[in-house]
Amino acid sequence: AKRLSGKTILITGASSGIGRATALEFVKTAPDVRLILTARRQEQLEELKSEIGAVSGAAEVLVRKLDVSDPADIKKFWAELPKEEWKDRLDVLVNNAGLVKGLEHVGDIAEEDVNIMYNTNVTGLINMTQAVIPLFKARDAGTVINIGSIAGREPYPGGSIYCSTKAAVRAFTEALRKELVSTRIRVAVIDPGQVETEFSVVRFRGDKSKADAVYAGVEPLTGEDIAEIVVFVAGRRENVVIADTLVFPSHQGGASSMHRK
Ligand code: NDP
Ligand code: 8X3
């Protein structure tokens, strides 16, 4: 908690699920933390800001609408971020924004879905990281935490695009960590298994009954479970890099290995 006191943390995709839970977990751990909360849905971010205010009056929260799939929006975000107060003080970037669309097989996947998944999960994460690395290098400090997925390690039918985006996150993260070995900058990837969030609702384009069926007879992880790990990784001593973490609920053994009651 002491190590995270007063730290400045930027979270993408903070409007729901893992990102939202991560914001709250940082505040619970370090009540005077400074958070930059971003996502496309500003209303949810404002609600989260109020909720954080009720948990801790000492936390500082900056809400910014940001679509990471749009390179121009990312440029605008960094250009408008107050320099001394926020940009120059950034300690941690949590690249969490991401999504899956559908379960279609190759040949039947809408071009738009391919682009949305790649532009968000891969290009968005790369562009956000490219923006922070020069800031971190200037101070020889900082932590990048990327949210990957078991899907990036174990591709499954119907997941060609999503799984390959997460494999790209894994490769990008590893190359970056190796590029930075002469620095104090830490680079981590956390790969969750099944977590119940809005993820499956988004996958099935708002069809809640299809989303619920994914979690029928199983006990998935919660956003909070992953949030605790993000905060743990961020809160280690400066010389400790938890480079790579795979997290399952107890019934899960792999992307397609699931015990159902
Ligand atoms: P949610 O759908 O609950 O949250 C996804 C978040 O990403 C939302 O806050 C959403 O905000 C944001 N997001 C989506 N597109 C964009 C965009 N273009 N720009 C900015 N923000 C965006 O799902 P999860 O919390 O589960 O997902 C978080 C991460 O965890 C993702 O990277 C996902 O791939 C990964 N993951 C999830 C697993 C699961 O089983 N749930 C397992 C493994 C990994 P908004 O719509 O407001 O923009
Ligand atoms: C989400 C996990 O296996 O449902 O990243 O694609 S999976």
Automatic annotation (TrEMBL):
Task: Give every Ketoreductase domain span.
Answer: 7-198
Q: Which domain of life is it from?
A: Eukaryota
The protein's UniProt keywords, in alphabetical order, are:
NADP, Oxidoreductase
This entry's Gene Ontology molecular function terms read: oxidoreductase activity, acting on the CH-OH group of donors, NAD or NADP as acceptor
* Record flagged with keyword NADP: yes
Does the keyword section mention Oxidoreductase? Answer: yes
Q: Which family does it belong to?
A: Belongs to the short-chain dehydrogenases/reductases (SDR) family.
Q: What is this protein called?
A: Ketoreductase domain-containing protein
The protein's organism comes out as Arthrobotrys musiformis
